[in-house]
């Protein structure tokens, strides 16, 4: 079922890799890697001698230079203006304007200053998020070696055109996409496009049928790195028609997602803004009707009073410091995540992690160690398993196997532990050291006398050494090739004929290793005559010694992390450029995939319609040999189902999907392009760190909800007091300056302190929250209303008592009760279910610091030189303070007492 092609569909959104540049004379359905070289040269009007200068100039004038083109960005001014489209911001702008007209310049300037700071921070964050395309441009090779009209030239890579013949040597970056014309042992690191850790072997051969990028051995791609050998290719794609260009197009079209918190706050902001306008209009209407009924002669004064009530409601309802507080709490989360090796680049990602329900992860380096490791071996006598590192006497067969593995090998490990060379060869050298057979000693004892380097056509490497007085050819390579060139076999130190039965056993073991997704190499040797010349003809009549099997093994901690993700209700999906068999074996081993789960290749995914993919999506745990378009499609499919999706990656090919995902997670060892497109970077490239960061993210969201609930409980109390004063025809209980002081200064510190709360015990055992869940879902709304009503009732009673002295005293007592109650409310705001004592009074020392700080702030408002600013009369003394503080304490005590009663009823 996994390999069954369900349907056929045409992908039209983006050009496929290797697609010829638009200046070729004829358009065909085949791509460059599927065509013969003769066809390509004919279509693009070129030859192995290259283009003449006139043709180059003409093509540059008509089709442009070899550099990525991107859309024009929004100006800073436009981004700045857009920050003022928020509903709450618009209401505050209106309030500030009214305050200015009424002569309250201080209040107006304070509001404007807050809005300006928030706008500047927003613009800076937006600009930071636009660096991925700049990083992509930086990957372009600066220079290129070309042949034009038969002459060799070195030119700026931006001057290349389709049809140019370009030369490559080890260490060169590929400057454009092209079809190989020559390849001498050419290896290219294409990990940035394919995700594979091993360099790709390149050959000048035709390919029949459609294959993914990682299997296009006759093509090279812009931005990749030549690591071995040399080659020459004809340019078939430049600028945005390259694979890198295609990634740039995907990046430009990938949608930057709002986080669940951003969506909820935006939705709530619209409702709150509309509600404030309605409430302010209602208040103004009541005052106007009252004045008309009383026959007020001074309509101007009455209208002013009505305006002031309406303005007070707006100022009281809007938590002016909300955006700053949320930003600070998120920043606190970034510090906690940094300790978990997760560096946050975009603040909202902290909260997004907490609601993540799908993690689409790369395999190599994230789930695995990104280090090829020998895990098994097989000798012709049937011996298998891993060698141990205990001192012992080695058999002749074991010694010969290790001699070939270490001596027919170009890799090394220096004294500083730095590994140099092909990862497969490094694995053998490291293994030799591990089993107390230092590779350096073997090489010193048996120096290399001659060699036949590895190439992708022979799939062999051979070296000549003198061992125990005998001149030997030592050969390692692909099992099928070595089997085909062997006529004898080594068993217990004896050279015997390689019979069909013996060969069958070794082939059977090779298949067994392959079924376990292990990479297998075969090892053989043969004696050489002293004067025998070394050429490719000597790699025959070999004596087969055995096999070595290796793999990039899973990280030890990944097993537990995958299980923790399941407990947290998070599904892990593997998306890799590796082969399907390998990916599926690793996925099943670490618990990502069950036996009944499906695995799809990129081509199989392309053959599914969106409806068909939607039908099997939840059963697919592994995607292999995928393209950048595949990755974006997978992410969007999960998002369409309402899941908050995290995507990991490290290559250029991952960047579009990292940007499309709700949270993109780049590897610290990855490309700058991936990091710029991502919201988070893992410094240790470890999947375990993602799960740890999810726990922090969930805690951060809980704390943001606590902070928001704290702010709105206090604001609701103030609104209730204002409406009560209006209905009872009392003076406005607060001045705008008092409310701004409470909202911007006093309440900010406790709200930030709540952001330091430790995680709840069930933080990683509950399911991810619904991204459409409102901020005030569950017990939060009930808690906000209950605490707001208690605070409001205390303030109303305080103002009533103050009216017995004077209107000025009623305002001072109302203000005092409100600020004290809101400060002390920090304790019950720590939890909706536990009391402050039950949660540990000293568990969050920052709450204690915040209460002390705010109490000191309030004391400052009582100083003789400051009282007038906050409308506190000179005769406000200990008696009035005691009554105001007592009422505030009573309200907070009721909040805590109610929790105790509810807990007893529930238990």
TrEMBL record:
Residue stretches making up the Cation-transporting P-type ATPase N-terminal domain: 31-104
Biased composition (Polar residues): 8-17
Domain of life: Bacteria
Keyword flag Transmembrane helix: yes
Residues covered by region (Disordered): 1-25
Stated family: Belongs to the cation transport ATPase (P-type) (TC 3.A.3) family. Type IIA subfamily.
SUPFAM superfamilies assigned to the protein according to its UniProt record, in alphabetical order: Calcium ATPase, transduction domain A, Calcium ATPase, transmembrane domain M, HAD-like, Metal cation-transporting ATPase, ATP-binding domain N
Keyword Transmembrane in record: yes
This protein's name: Calcium-translocating P-type ATPase
Species, as recorded: Trichococcus patagoniensis
Subcellular location: Membrane
One GO cellular component term: membrane
Keywords, in A-Z order: ATP-binding, Membrane, Nucleotide-binding, Translocase, Transmembrane, Transmembrane helix
């Amino acid at each position: 079922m996994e390999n069954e092609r369900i349907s056929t569909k045409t992908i039209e959104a983006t050009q496929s890799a290797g697609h010829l540049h638009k200046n070729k004379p004829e358009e065909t359905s085949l791509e460059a890697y599927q065509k013969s070289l003769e066809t390509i040269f004919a279509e693009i009007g070129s030859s192995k001698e290259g283009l003449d200068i006139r043709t180059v100039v003409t093509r540059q004038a008509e089709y442009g230079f070899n550099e990525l083109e991107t859309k024009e960005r929004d100006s800073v001014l436009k981004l700045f203006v857009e920050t003022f489209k928020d509903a709450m911001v618009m209401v505050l702008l209106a309030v500030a304007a009214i305050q200015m007209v009424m002569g309250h310049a201080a209040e107006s300037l304070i509001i404007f200053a807050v809005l300006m700071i928030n706008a500047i921070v927003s613009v800076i964050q937006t600009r930071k998020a636009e660096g991925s395309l700049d990083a992509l441009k930086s990957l372009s090779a600066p220079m290129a070696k070309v042949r034009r009209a038969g002459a060799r030239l070195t030119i700026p890579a931006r001057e290349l055109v389709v049809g140019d013949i370009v030369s490559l040597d080890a260490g060169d970056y590929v400057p454009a996409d092209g079809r190989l014309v020559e390849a001498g042992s050419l290896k290219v690191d294409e990990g940035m496009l394919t995700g594979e850790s091993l360099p790709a072997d390149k050959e000048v051969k035709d390919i029949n049928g459609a294959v993914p990028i990682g299997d296009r051995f006759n093509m090279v791609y812009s931005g990749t790195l030549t690591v071995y050998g040399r080659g020459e290719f004809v340019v078939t794609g430049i600028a945005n028609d390259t694979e890198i260009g295609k990634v740039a197009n995907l990046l430009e079209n990938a949608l930057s997602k709002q986080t669940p918190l951003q969506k909820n706050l935006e939705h709530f902001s619209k409702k709150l803004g509309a509600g404030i306008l309605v409430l302010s209009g209602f208040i103004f209407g009541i005052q106007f009707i009252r004045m008309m009924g009383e026959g007020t002669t001074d309509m101007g004064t009455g209208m002013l009073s009505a305006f002031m009530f309406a303005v007070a409601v707006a100022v009281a309802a809007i938590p002016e410091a909300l955006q700053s507080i949320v930003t600070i709490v998120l920043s606190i989360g970034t510090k906690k995540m940094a300790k978990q090796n997760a560096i946050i680049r975009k603040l909202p990602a902290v909260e997004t992690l907490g609601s993540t329900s799908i993690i689409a992860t790369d395999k190599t380096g994230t789930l695995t160690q990104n280090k090829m490791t020998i895990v098994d071996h097989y000798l012709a006598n049937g011996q298998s398993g891993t060698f141990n590192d205990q001192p012992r006497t080695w058999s002749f067969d074991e010694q010969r196997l290790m001699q070939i593995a270490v001596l027919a090998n170009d890799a090394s490990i220096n004294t500083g532990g730095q590994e140099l060379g092909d990862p497969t060869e490094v694995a053998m050298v490291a293994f030799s050291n591990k089993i107390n057979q230092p590779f350096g000693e073997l090489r010193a004892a048996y120096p290399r006398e001659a060699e036949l380097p590895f190439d992708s056509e022979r799939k062999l490497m051979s070296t000549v050494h003198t061992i125990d007085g005998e001149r030997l050819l030592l050969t390692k390579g692909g099992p099928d090739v070595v089997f085909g060139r062997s006529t004898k076999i080594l068993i217990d130190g004896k050279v015997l004929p390689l019979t069909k039965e013996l060969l069958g056993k070794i082939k059977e073991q090779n298949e067994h290793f392959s079924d376990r997704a292990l990479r297998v190499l075969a090892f053989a040797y043969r004696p050489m005559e002293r004067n025998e010349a070394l050429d490719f003809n000597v790699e025959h009549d070999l004596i087969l010694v055995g096999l070595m099997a290796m793999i990039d093994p899973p990280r030890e901690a990944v097993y537990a992390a995958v299980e923790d993700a399941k407990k947290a209700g998070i599904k892990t999906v593997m998306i890799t450029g590796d082969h399907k068999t390998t990916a599926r074996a690793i996925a099943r081993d670490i618990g990502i995939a069950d036996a009944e789960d499906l695995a799809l290749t990129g081509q199989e995914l392309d053959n599914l319609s969106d409806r068909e993919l939607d039908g099997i999506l939840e059963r697919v745990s592994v995607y292999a040999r995928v393209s950048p378009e595949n990755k974006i499609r997978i992410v969007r499919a999960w998002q369409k189902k309402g899941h908050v999706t995290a995507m990991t990656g490290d290559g250029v090919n991952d960047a579009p999907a990292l940007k499309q995902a709700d949270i993109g997670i780049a590897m610290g060892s990855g490309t700058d392009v991936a990091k710029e497109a991502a919201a988070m970077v893992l410094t240790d490239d470890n999947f375990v760190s993602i799960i740890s960061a999810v726990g922090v993210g969930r805690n951060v969201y809980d704390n943001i909800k606590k902070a928001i609930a704290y702010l709105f409980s206090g604001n609701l109390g103030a609104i209730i007091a204002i409406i009560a004063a209006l209905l009872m025809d009392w003076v406005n209980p607060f001045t705008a300056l008092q409310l701004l002081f409470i909202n911007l200064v006093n309440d900010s510190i406790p709200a930030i302190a709540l952001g330091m709360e430790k995680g709840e015990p069930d933080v990683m055992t509950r399911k991810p929250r619904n991204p459409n869940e409102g901020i005030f879902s569950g017990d939060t709304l009930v808690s906000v209303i209950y605490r707001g009503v208690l605070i409001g009732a205390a303030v109303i009673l305080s103002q009533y008592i103050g009216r017995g002295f004077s209107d000025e005293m009623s305002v001072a007592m109302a203000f005092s009760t409100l600020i004290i109650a809101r400060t002390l409310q920090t304790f019950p705001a720590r939890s909706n279910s536990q009391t402050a004592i039950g949660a540990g009074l000293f568990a969050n020392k920052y709450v204690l610091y915040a209460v002390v700080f705010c109490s000191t702030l309030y004391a400052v408002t009582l100083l003789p030189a400051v009282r007038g600013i906050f409308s506190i009369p000179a005769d406000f003394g200990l008696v009035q303070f005691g009554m105001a503080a007592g009422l505030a304490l009573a309200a907070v005590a009721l909040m805590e007492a109610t929790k105790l009663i509810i807990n007893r009823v529930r238990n």
